[in-house]
Amino acid sequence: MIGKIAGRIDYRAEDHVLIDVGGVGYLVYCSDRTLAALPGAGEATALYTDLLVREDILQLYGFVTLVEKEWHRLLMSVQGVGAKASLAILGALGPDGVSRAIALGDWNAVKAAKGIGPKTAQRVVNELKDKAPGIMALGAGMAAASGEAPAQVVEGSTPAPNAAAYAPAKGNAAAQSEALSALSNLGYAPGEAASAVAQAAGDAPEAGTPELIRAALKLLAPKG
Predict the structure, then answer these.
(1) What mean pLDDT do residues 52-72 have?
(2) By the number of CB atoms within 10 A of the CB, which of 2, 40, 148, 166 ranks highest?
(3) What angle do CA 188, 32, 142 make, to 5 degrees?
(4) pTM beyond 0.70
């Protein structure tokens, strides 16, 4: 398995690039969004890759981040979603947009991708919704590891009827920060996200980031 390549871009095409790695050229297919983020011909670049192996074909697909690569892998696990459709979804929404759409059940956002019909979009959301918190946790963890200041759970950011329920759990401060960062990326206000994460952490002090995200999303879901 070729998981990552680094070299110089030999040339760019409409849906792929050729990357020269020590004299060997690797043809790598990418989404429109990824292609737009790459430098010009002759410049150095690095991409995470996923190798598609079939009886009659070997194709490399390239991604700027591991989160994008993981979403590609999961999207392709859905019936009716091949590599081309996966890249179309990632190109239209980006990895954060895919996380947001699937976590919130917004299949209309997925349907906006070229070539994706309503039935396929609904299938993507239904089959991957439970897996979204894990990918969101991966993204939040990578942001923290890269040195970006993680969002902190803010005590008292919104009134709480039961202060004890919203007190930060002692055993998972890092998981709370990562969960809050992920919820902020979904567009939730800092106050409501902080309260939901704190309550989820109070209910499950040893929960990891994916579990906190999943629990917080349930608390934030519209009632009724």
Answers:
(1) 91
(2) 166
(3) 45
(4) yes
